[in-house]
Design goal:
single chain, about 220 residues, mainly alpha
């Protein structure tokens, strides 16, 4: 089965799952209005499981550091790979300096809140799906192998993490680009109001990579 076939069959399920994440619109709207609600950021990060192993004042510091990052940036109307890599690197370093750990997923999720139409979220389930699809899906067959996600133990590891993320997001964006006509038609067919196609592609890949459930 190609990814396109899976997309056509599971599109309503993926959209329904995304619409149930009620914290996303609150975060996106707050940041769009240049808000600074660090309690909302903390709640959103907690709901996504991004604070595992982090307690107390460290959560406040992380949320406030992200908001500082968000407020210091003029929001670009169009972004390209160079901008994505620069944003990802800067935020990853900022979070690592507050609390040394691997922030690959959290960095992408927080950036998505700033650029919800453009940023690809990093997730281990999606990574697993992409490894497989590179072997069987014709749209990804000629792409560079994604490789394993690097460990981030020190600042010197950041560049390899950024490179790994850029390979990953390139594959997801390619699937989005190839399947945009199908997504447009499915949106019309189902009268779907969820507006971020990039998250639908992400969710479908996540479903493929989830080894515990069948959808």
């Amino acid at each position: 089965m190609s990814f396109k076939k899976y997309l056509e069959e599971k599109y309503p399920i993926a959209c329904d799952m995304q619409r149930q994440i009620d914290g996303d619109p609150l975060m996106v709207d707050m940041l769009r209005m240049n808000g600074a609600d660090h309690e909302l950021v903390k709640k959103w990060m907690r709901n996504y499981g991004l604070f595992q192993g982090i307690e107390g004042d460290s959560r406040n510091k992380i949320a406030k550091r992200f908001l500082t990052f968000a407020q210091q940036h003029h929001r670009a109307t169009r972004i390209n790979d160079t901008i994505v890599a620069d944003l990802y690197r800067e935020l990853l370093i900022a979070l690592f300096k507050v609390k040394p750990r691997s922030w690959m997923s959290a960095t992408s999720k927080l950036l998505w809140c700033l650029y919800p139409h453009d940023i690809v979220i990093y997730d281990a389930f999606v990574h697993r799906a992409l490894v497989t699809l590179q072997c069987v899906d014709p749209d990804l067959g000629s792409t560079e192998r994604i490789g394993a996600a690097p460990m981030i133990r020190e600042l010197a590891d950041i560049d390899s993490a950024v490179a790994a993320y850029m390979r990953y997001q390139g594959l997801v964006r390619k699937l989005l680009a190839v399947n945009t006509p199908a997504l447009t038609e499915l949106r019309r067919q189902y009268k779907e109001q969820y507006q971020y196609d990039i998250r639908i592609v992400d969710k479908l890949l996540w479903m493929i990579g989830d080894s515990k459930r069948a959808y």
